[in-house]
């Protein structure tokens, strides 16, 4: 990710994720329902979960390497929390429970990602 500040990186990540929710949200809801009956769908969903976790670890590792957070920030905890926020399961759940559109989910996600790091810890 090339964005120069952590806020820009978090916002870009929220925008990409909201875009996926917009384009594939209905498909992800159906896939979640089918996981129990279809092993191939379950395997693909699990692969997606692992990839989201990997992406989150890489995000915070690069962010720390670029000096955008203080060295005392626990990047493993941030990665795990971000994983929970970004995963398709969370998006499907929030859209079902709250009836959110992809745009509403995107607004929530942007705020949630920014809240991960206290302003005084950002660089």
Quick structural overview:
With 123 residues, this protein is mainly alpha-helical.
Describe the protein.
With 123 residues, the protein is mainly alpha-helical. The chain has one domain (6-117). It contains five helices and no strands.
Secondary structure layout plus pairing:
Blueprint: H1 6-34, H2 39-65, H3 75-86, H4 88-98, H5 102-114
Helix pairs in contact: 1-2, 1-4, 1-5, 2-3
Class by alpha and beta content? mainly alpha
Shape: globular
* Radius of gyration (Å): 15 Å
Counting H and I runs of at least 4 residues, what is the number of helices?
A: 5
On the 0-100 scale, what is the average pLDDT? 85
Q: What's the story with the biggest beta sheet?
A: none
E-strand count: 0
Uncertain segments? none
End-to-end Cα distance, whole Å, is: 16 Å
List the secondary-structure elements in sequence, H or E. Answer: HHHHH
Helix content: over 70%
Number of domains: 1
Q: Into which percentage range does the β-strand content fall?
A: under 5%
As an assembly, this protein is single chain
